[in-house]
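It would be a great kindness if you could assist me with a short task in structural biology. The matter concerns a single protein, recorded as an amino acid sequence and a row of backbone structure tokens. Could you please explain, in whatever detail you think fit, how the structure tokens follow from the sequence? Thank you for your consideration; the sequence and its tokens are set out here:
___
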Amino acid sequence: MARIGIIGTGSMGGMLIRKFVETGAFSAGDVIASNRSPDKARAIAAATGIGIAGSNRDLAAASDAIFICVKPLEVKALLKELEGILTADKLVVSIAADVTIGDISALCDARAARVIPSVTSECSKGVSLVAFGDSSTEADRSLVLSALGSISQPVETEEQNFELLADLTSCAPAFISSLMHEFALSAIRRGYIPAGLAKMLVIETLAGTAELLKSASSFEEVVTRVATKGGITEEGVKVIKKAAPSMYDDLLEVTLAKHSLMKERIRDQEP
């Protein structure tokens, strides 16, 4: 069994640790973590039984696979800190958006992979995007895909597709929650519905709709089951089809522009 190190125990890093241990993807005894805040590392260690490394360098030296769970603009500095330790016999798995496999490989000799997880893995649902560097081995692929498969649906794809696909996976819980919130608020404004009731109705209906979509051949199949010809629902669907395309085009335009800006900032950082 590989020794797994996780640098960064914030929202995503902490979630990965909890879910990997909870699902048995890795045993607690095979996982060590480090964090800029020692208190956070100690807290997750106490909750999960994993070990704590004294420093990032200690963690990298003791680990076969190192998951980097820090902010994108912190990755280059971290790799510089680990200079000389991330050798070719180690695997680096970065979850940092917009830091490419090329960026990682330029600063260390380790084999590299990228993962874009989703908060939905907290419920063992959703998709984790995965891309592997050219030097990655079949053992690397097996380790990463197996671990992510225990908490999500891993989808291996070309790295060049990450930004757009991440909007449909990692970013989508926020987009969908925002949309459903606005839907509930509109009903509240018009019908004096208690906020708690509106929230429950929308959430339960959303969960049921997701299950229907899984077995449906298309989105349109579910739409036509509800929106009968000449009926009330059909009128609402017409509004969505008129207004939504431009909204979603705008959404993807601004998010992809932000990705481009972040990549520029990463490229401009000192190596």
Remarks:
- Residues 232-268 form the longest helix (37 residues).
- The first strand starts at residue 4 and ends at 7.
- The chain has a mean pLDDT of 96.
